Amino acid sequence: MLPLHAFGARYDLPAPLYLFLIGAGAVVFVSFLLVLRRPVTRVRPTGDDVPPVPHVPSWPGWLLFMIALVMIFGGLFGTQSTPDNIVVTAFWLVFWIALPISIAVIGNYWPYISPLNVVARLVGSKARLAWPGSWGYWPATILFFLFACGELVFNGVTTTPAGTAWVLLAYGILNAAMAYLFGAETWLRRGEVFSVLFATWSRLGYFRFGTPGTRGFFGGLHRPFEASVS
What we know:
Blueprint: H1 17-36, H2 59-77, H3 86-106, H4 115-123, H5 138-152, H6 155-158, H7 161-182, H8 184-190, H9 193-201
Helix pairs in contact: 2-4, 2-7, 4-7, 4-8, 5-9, 7-8
């Protein structure tokens, strides 16, 4: 039997099903209450939902880029014992779970430390193709779905050290290729899954990091989202 969430042994919480159902329903109900009386803004969205990214990659981004390379190497050629190889914990627990939570609380500091931005700006100084308008945010949406499937469905493969390393390497190559074709600015704003997701979640955070909105929790929600099915 494969675990159904990330990695590790399966564990069933000692709580009856009705408590889970009540809790899930309460979360949805409270979510609607939070926006029930919110006035509708007349300001048209611009679509620039990703914070301005420094044109010169910062040293934190370079540092994380080098760390990512070391972890990929360790995942491919190091021990294949999940508890003994840091790449699995670093990606699926720290990056995939802890980092988004911190961004939702603090704000979107990701553009200033992202190793993916470093790669994108190295190869994508100019756009060679125009981003199709019909694509919207679909590339980021599809990529998020694939990462979620890797965690929840195919975790018997993707959450091993080698599997995680291959995921990181493949996505790094895809990120570089898309930035080369469409330019770093467009790709980071529209297609790079973590830039798009973190920009969305950071609307809940306290600090704006240069984006429109007011300082304080939920301050980024004052800015309208771009209308898009994706």
